[in-house]
Q: What sequence folds into this?
């Protein structure tokens, strides 16, 4: 792998999704990522369906978070395993872990010990609810964090029906936040010569994207609630029924509103619709008026008409439609890798591109322990 981090070695002790996703982001940037697994494997190897492969035992969940990595198996509770981890720590730039608070300490790998072994090591530590505080030791999985962090109260058709976000968003955000924290710590290391610990959690990452929902309460004193497929502050902005299904229309300013209103034969200047505040106050009536007009034609008609006016609008695609879409493929969001058991397969690709770079030659998520010998050879060579 080539990329901005091609000289960086990452020791990935994490499992499931948050830590592996963060490590995969660093691998996409060229880092050499060694995934350390218990001999029984990362638990996400058993998460499905769907399972694929000749024996239907390869988890597509695991495939989603572990491209561009090498896998070695280590029993970290054994003396031999701890010794191998310490050798790897000495040769690494970054260590990623998402154990419960205190687990690494009990294994003899406290942050103090890690920095004694390698003062330049950047440690990324991800927990469920934080490393300290009154509930810092709680175990956490994505849906629990979504509920505790308020995201479920913002998601769903109404305040009485809280929904989880369809993707494991707290896990994924923790990985994203952790990866950018690692990059910042590596940059600082160029000045100081020393590594540091980067900490985040599922809770912090979910609360950290409240944005205007957060300030609606902290500044405005209003508790935001789920509003279905319509925006919490802007109208019209959401999903609307037309002749053959749903279309999304996002009106973010008065110029766009006037274009939409004229297209749908609605008077944009009547008092109840003249400003965003008035439109929001009369949102249910506005939705009804718009859907009566939209019922005259199908989605293709309205998408063309709105696109011609420069008004943001779009379809609601299923996942299979997304990956068949030429625009998605043009952005490198689908990559092909050669898997040892599955052959050539397509995976969701990285969201970043860099001007002038040749597209990366990605590698498939590894089989359990497939790189034991290669990593040991690499380690011995580094130590020499």
A:
């Amino acid at each position: 792998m080539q990329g901005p981090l091609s000289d960086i070695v990452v020791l990935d002790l994490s499992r499931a999704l948050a830590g592996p996703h963060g490590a995969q982001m660093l691998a996409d940037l060229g880092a050499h990522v060694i995934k350390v697994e218990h001999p029984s494997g990362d638990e996400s190897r058993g998460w499905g369906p769907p399972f694929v492969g000749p024996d239907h035992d390869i988890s597509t969940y695991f495939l989603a978070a572990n491209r561009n990595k090498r896998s070695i198996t280590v029993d970290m509770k054994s003396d031999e395993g701890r010794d191998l981890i310490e050798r790897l720590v000495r040769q690494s730039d970054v260590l990623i872990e998402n154990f419960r608070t205190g687990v690494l300490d009990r294994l003899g790998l406290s942050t103090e010990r890690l920095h004694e072994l390698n003062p330049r090591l950047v440690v990324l530590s991800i927990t469920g609810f934080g490393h300290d505080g009154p509930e810092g030791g709680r175990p956490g999985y994505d849906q629990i964090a979504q509920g505790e962090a308020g995201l479920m109260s913002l998601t769903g058709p109404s305040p009485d029906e809280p929904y989880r976000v369809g993707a494991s968003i707290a896990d994924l955000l923790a990985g994203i936040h952790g990866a950018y924290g690692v990059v910042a710590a590596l940059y600082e290391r160029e000045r100081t010569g020393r590594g540091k610990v980067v900490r985040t959690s599922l809770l912090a990452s979910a609360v950290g994207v409240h944005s205007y929902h957060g300030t609606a309460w902290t500044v405005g004193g209003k508790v935001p609630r789920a509003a279905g497929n319509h925006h919490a502050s802007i109208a019209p902005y959401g999903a609307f029924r037309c002749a053959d299904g749903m279309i999304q229309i996002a009106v973010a300013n008065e110029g766009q509103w006037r274009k939409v209103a004229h297209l749908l034969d609605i008077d944009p200047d009547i008092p109840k619709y003249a400003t965003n505040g008035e439109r929001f106050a009369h949102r249910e009536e506005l939705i009804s008026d718009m859907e009566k007009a939209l019922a005259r034609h199908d989605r293709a008609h309205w998408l063309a008409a709105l696109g011609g006016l420069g008004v943001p609008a779009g379809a609601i695609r299923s996942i299979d439609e997304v990956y068949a879409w030429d625009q998605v493929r043009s952005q490198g969001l689908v990559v092909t890798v050669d898997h040892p058991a599955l052959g050539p397969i397509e995976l969701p690709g990285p969201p970043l591109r860099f001007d002038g770079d040749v597209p990366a030659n990605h590698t498939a998520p590894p089989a359990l322990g497939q790189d034991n010998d290669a990593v040991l050879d690499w380690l011995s060579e580094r130590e020499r």
